[in-house]
Amino acid sequence: xxxxxxxxxxxxxxxxxxxxxxxxxxxxxxxxxxxxxxxxxxxxxxxxxxxxxxxxxxxxxxxxxxxxxxxxxxxxxxxxxxxxxxxxxxxxxxxxxxxxxxxxxxxxxxxxxxxxxxxxxxxxxxxxxxxxxxxxxxxxxxxxxxxxxxxxxxxxxxxxxxxxxxxxxxxxxxxxxxxxxxxxxxxxxxxxxxxxxxxxxxxxxxxxxxxxxxxxxxxxxxxxxxxxxxxxxxxxxxxxxxxxxxxxxxxxxxxxxxxxxxxxxxxxxxxxxxxxxxxxxxxxxxxxxxxxxxxxxxxxxxxxxxxxxxxxxxxxxxxxxxxxxxxxxxxxxxxxxxxxxxxxxxxxxxxxxxxxxxxxxxxxxxxxxxxxxxxxxxxxxxxxxxxxxxxxxxxxxxxxxxxxxxxxxxxxxxxxxxxxxxxxxxxxxxxxxxxxxxxxxxxxxxxxxxxxxxxxxxxxxxxxxxxxxxxxxxxxxxxxxxxxxxxxxxxxxxxxxxxxxxxxxxxxxxx
Length: 511
Known about the structure:
The chain has 511 residues and is mostly beta strands. It has two helices and 58 strands. Helices cover 5% and strands 39% of the residues. A hairpin with a 2-residue loop joins strand 2 and strand 3.
């Protein structure tokens, strides 16, 4: 027997042995005597899986002011669209925990002027209503009137041409993936697209072309992924403690794009071409990663103690930013605005910002402010202007129409580079420690380690009592013009190629 034949025989013997073991094992089967009678189905109907009730005159008959009325908790659905009876609501909800699936159908109002003829109206005190998947239009009241009902959820709806509000909701409710348009034409106290009380979430929703606001919300709102455009007043307004993110407001014709009361947060939003300010924020707000361009007033207007970071304001018809006191502005750009680029009150810090080609000053601040690491270029008036008690360090001011840096009394101006200022005047200074209306009060300032080149005047100090040292000036029509009663490091005039031989560590240099 060959080796191959031996292997085949072994495999065959193993298979026979395994089969024998299996045959010796006890085998069990189900009963062979099924119960008497016909075989019954074990599947569940859709209504058993999710019990639902069709909305019709039999199951949800209306009353004196409603076409249909839901009086029991549960899940309800439309089997077709309908037009409400004249002057009546579409569906009145008089129970808690009701779900209404419009099933892709449309509820249409039947005209009239009744302010209580709403599309869907949960009664005061009810809660837990869900409305989804369909359209509501042409009601003289609101599309959904839930301002007296709480913890409702509205999603995947389109609401058009309703007289008061498209959607109105109370606390604890959410709106998701809806479109609200052309609402508010019927007037009322607060007409517009979406009106809410406190603590409502609005997500991935469009509210536009309404006769009134896009969204008027209460406190502690959460608004994300939304668009507010073409409304006849403001785009989106929320009260204190709210958050608005990844949303846009544009073309709102008689108001601001975003209006936020105190202590709100707005992030990653765009405000464009609104008739008033792009973003208007109350005290203590945080604004980050936003753009506010081509608005009719300021790009960003804020109250005191706000933080603005990584944002751009461009081509607004007033200042790019108009801010209150003690604000912080970091890593922002202000371009081509019709007044100042960044304008703020006392105690504000502007850090690592760019202000370019603005019609007035690039950065214009009141007293006690800090400007650090900023660039102010080609602004029509001054590059950077601060009043008493301020600090300007590490900045570049070039090509501005008047002065590069202007500072008042009790200031420190250090380590700045000022070049080619005075483009539209005959007396533009690199640094101007101005006398102002009360020149005798402009003292006690410190000007040090600055470089001023190709200005009409390099460094100009009009009043006594200031100290000027370790500065360099070159190519200016007049390099240094300093009041004789100031303390000034010796000014050394260097010839081309000459070595610096002085050991005077406080010297100023012309070169």
